[in-house]
């Protein structure tokens, strides 16, 4: 074999060896009690925020237009409690460790699709941790404002409207995934044992409600791309505000709010029975 042929093989072997080392390290990190308990704390925190979001959505449906039923609104509610700073600290810790847990899943020996979902979830949870840090520092950020700012930035790029449209399609795809996961009970694969009937019902209602809300959010992105108007894109609170003006809007928003609350309760069960 020529020396030039041996070099690529040596590089390939070195890369494979490095990948194996990273995968082994990821398995060790995933098995560490701090990471496992941290992920469960993250699910608990997520459950609390979804319960608050559900309450805020019901308040919005009841005519309280100051209610902001999204992550920033839920964090603002937590910050306004007597133990707000300490509770926000738990939010930061829980979401950061859950984000770390998802990062570890990317490096483990998993199918490519599972790694991609883990990477997306890692970004989401770490962003939530950063948002909670902002509230602790007294510099809160509105989810709706951040969405509009990101959309405006994309619009300023070449083919920006197309990028915003693609983002809308991605969000719609995530929404469809949530609905299907709930209806087909695919959430069972996330748990170490099959949940009881009540937990199963909560999961179905919660995933479907979240999926429907995401479909509306994605639709607003598509509208913003079509009209070249960044202000047309918004987060979850804006999507529910749009639904509020539809026929039977208050009932729809209240139903989604109850679905968020159901997902919050399911998250408590997931914290106990999550497959790690």
From TrEMBL:
Alphabetized InterPro entries for the sequence: DUF1206
Keywords assigned: Membrane, Transmembrane, Transmembrane helix
Entry superkingdom: Bacteria
Domain DUF1206: 41-108, 118-183, 205-273
Entry protein name: DUF1206 domain-containing protein
Positions of transmembrane segments: 41-62, 82-101, 122-139, 159-180, 201-226, 238-266
Organism: Propioniciclava tarda
Signal peptide: none
């Amino acid at each position: 074999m020529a020396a030039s042929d041996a070099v690529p093989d040596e590089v390939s072997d070195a890369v494979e060896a490095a990948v194996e080392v990273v995968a082994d390290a990821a398995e060790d990190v995933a098995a560490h009690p701090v990471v496992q308990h941290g992920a469960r704390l993250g699910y608990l925190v997520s459950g609390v925020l979804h319960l608050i979001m559900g309450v805020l959505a019901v308040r919005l449906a009841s005519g309280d237009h100051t209610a902001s039923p999204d992550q920033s609104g839920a964090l603002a509610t937590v910050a306004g409690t007597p133990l707000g700073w300490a509770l926000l600290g738990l939010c930061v810790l829980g979401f950061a460790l859950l984000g770390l847990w998802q990062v570890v899943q990317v490096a483990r020996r998993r199918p490519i699709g599972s790694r991609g979902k883990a990477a997306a979830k890692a970004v989401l949870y770490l962003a939530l941790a950063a948002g909670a840090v902002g509230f602790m520092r007294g510099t809160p950020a509105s989810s709706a404002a951040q969405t509009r700012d990101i959309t405006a930035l994309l619009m300023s790029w070449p083919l920006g409207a197309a990028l915003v449209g693609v983002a809308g399609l991605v969000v719609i795809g995530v929404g469809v995934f949530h609905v299907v996961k709930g209806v087909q009970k695919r959430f069972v694969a996330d748990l170490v044992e099959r949940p009881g009937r009540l937990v199963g019902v909560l999961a179905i209602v919660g995933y479907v409600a979240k999926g429907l809300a995401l479909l509306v959010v994605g639709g607003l992105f598509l509208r913003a791309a079509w009209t070249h108007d960044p202000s047309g894109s918004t987060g979850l609170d804006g999507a529910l505000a749009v639904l509020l003006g539809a026929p039977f809007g208050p009932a729809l928003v209240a139903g989604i709010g109850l679905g968020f609350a159901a997902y919050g309760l399911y998250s408590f069960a997931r914290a106990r029975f999550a497959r790690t």
